[in-house]
């Protein structure tokens, strides 16, 4: 508390009632805050600006890293990519003064305008933090995405092998059906051949020779004709057997191709790679925070979480966190201002010099006179003592 001092001016000299001390910095700030009606916590303001500079640094670093990943990076592209983040950084810096203005301004128009500026700055901060959050989750999902892509590629190759195996199986089945049909045809022809008679024999009456004597009786003989169906059936059987042999050879070739396709080295390697990639993908999924959150929210196994569910969780997680972070850093600046309630009766009283001179002037003059007389009496007694001693 300031020490009040007054000067009392007498007719002859001036006597200081209380020596006036120089006010300290805290006392000056207290007087200033009392006059303004509020105080500001400087440490919180410094913390708010520190948070702003950290956010600005993260935004610029994230932009530089994104540009550095481009295939053909040039200085012009880097400068062009940094222009917008720098402009957003200026908006970030304006958020702290605007938040303080909301608490310190007395005009409601200025308060509302400052609050609108704070909301705009919060929107900018949320957008910047969202891009940073998305970039921070990207490396965690890249591993799972790569393994998912590898598994799909291996499954496609495995499917191609299965298609080849199915085609070989269909070809083998078709050849077997052709062989069976050829064998059935041979059997049918052989059955028909077995049912045929070797020759068609009949008794024929032969008239006597004209040169024979009269009265010569006619003679009979048996005439046999070869069955014409036998040669035709034998020819057809020969052709059918040749087709059956060809069909049997084709069946053996188709069986070899089917066995070769089923026992292909590439298929076994693909199956081993799929098993290995599936195991690694499962471990990567269990280490992914987003997969765990999505599995907990949707109540499914982490391996069964879909990319759409991952994107939905990622959006809400980063969006809500960005807005919360922006408002938290804003509240640091807003709560740094503390209102001071000024009482109607101020206990500190300051008297002007004229009032002090009027009230205490005569008393001090009398005290001064008595002090002088006492000093003079003491000096006289001292002088008398010295003369007596001599």
The backbone outline, from C-alpha atoms, is rod-shaped
Radius of gyration: 58 Å
What is the structural class? mainly alpha
**Strands, count:** 6
Termini separation comes to 57 Å
Largest sheet: 2 strands, antiparallel
Binned, the helix content reads over 70%
Q: Would you tell me the overall average pLDDT?
A: 76
- What ranges have pLDDT less than 50 throughout 5 or more consecutive residues? 1-20
Strand content: 5-15%
Q: For the largest beta sheet, what order do the strands appear in spatially?
A: 1-2
Number of helices: 9
Order of helices and strands: EEHEHHHEEHHHHEH
Descriptors:
390 residues; mainly alpha; two-stranded antiparallel sheet; two-stranded antiparallel ribbon; 9 helices; 6 strands
Task: Describe the SSE topology.
Blueprint: E1 7-9, E2 14-16, H1 25-36, E3 38-40, H2 42-68, H3 75-104, H4 108-195, E4 199-206, E5 219-226, H5 228-262, H6 265-286, H7 289-298, H8 307-334, E6 337-339, H9 353-389
Antiparallel strand pairs: 1-2, 3-6, 4-5
Helix pairs in contact: 2-3, 2-4, 2-8, 3-4, 3-8, 4-5, 4-6, 4-8, 7-8
Characterise the protein shown here:
This protein is mainly alpha-helical and 390 residues long. The chain has a domain at 1-30 and 343-377. Helices cover 74% and strands 7% of the residues. The chain is built from 9 helices and 6 strands; from the N terminus they run ββαβαααββααααβα. The chain has helices at residues 25-36, 42-68, 75-104, 108-195, 228-262, 265-286, 289-298, 307-334, 353-389; strands spanning 7-9, 14-16, 38-40, 199-206, 219-226, 337-339. Strands 1-2 form a two-stranded antiparallel sheet. Strands 3-6 form a two-stranded antiparallel sheet. Strand 1 and strand 2 (14-16) form a beta hairpin. Helix 2 packs parallel to helix 4. The longest helix has 88 residues, at 108-195. The model is unreliable at 1-20 (pLDDT under 50).
């Amino acid at each position: 508390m300031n020490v009040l001092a007054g000067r009392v001016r007498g007719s002859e000299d001036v006597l200081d009632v209380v020596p006036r001390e120089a006010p300290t910095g805290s006392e000056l700030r207290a007087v200033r805050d009392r006059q303004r009606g509020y105080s500001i916590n400087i440490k919180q303001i410094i913390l708010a600006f520190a948070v702003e500079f950290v956010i600005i640094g993260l935004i610029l670093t994230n932009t530089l890293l994104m540009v550095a990943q481009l295939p053909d990076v040039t200085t012009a592209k880097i400068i062009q990519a940094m222009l917008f983040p720098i402009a957003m950084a200026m908006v970030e810096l304006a958020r702290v003064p605007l938040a303080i203005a909301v608490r310190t301004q007395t005009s409601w128009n200025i308060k509302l305008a400052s609050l609108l500026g704070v909301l705009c700055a919060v929107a900018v901060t949320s957008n910047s933090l969202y891009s940073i959050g998305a970039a921070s989750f990207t490396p965690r999902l890249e591993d799972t995405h790569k393994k998912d892509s590898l598994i799909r590629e291996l499954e496609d190759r495995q499917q191609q092998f299965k298609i080849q195996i199915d085609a070989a199986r269909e070809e083998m089945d078709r050849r077997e059906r052709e062989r069976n049909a050829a064998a059935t045809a041979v059997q049918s022809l052989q059955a028909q051949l077995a049912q045929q008679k070797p020759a068609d024999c009949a008794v024929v009456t032969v008239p006597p020779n004209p040169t024979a004597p009269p009265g010569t009786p006619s003679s009979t003989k048996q005439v046999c004709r070869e069955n014409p169906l036998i040669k035709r059936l034998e020819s057809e059987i020969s052709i059918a057997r040749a087709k059956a042999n060809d069909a049997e050879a084709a069946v053996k070739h188709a069986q070899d191709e089917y066995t070769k396709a089923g026992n292909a080295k590439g298929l076994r390697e693909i199956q081993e790679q799929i098993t290995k990639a599936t195991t690694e993908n499962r471990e990567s999924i269990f280490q992914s925070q987003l997969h765990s959150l999505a599995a907990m929210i949707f109540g499914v196994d982490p391996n069964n979480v879909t990319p759409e569910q991952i994107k939905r969780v990622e959006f809400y997680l980063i969006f809500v966190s960005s807005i919360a972070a922006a408002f938290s850093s804003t509240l640091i600046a807003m709560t740094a201002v503390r209102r001071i309630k000024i009482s109607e009766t101020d206990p500190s009283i300051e008297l002007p010099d004229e009032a002090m001179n009027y009230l205490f002037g005569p008393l001090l003059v009398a005290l001064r006179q008595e002090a002088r007389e006492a000093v003079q009496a003491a000096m006289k007694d001292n002088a008398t003592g010295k003369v007596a001693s001599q």
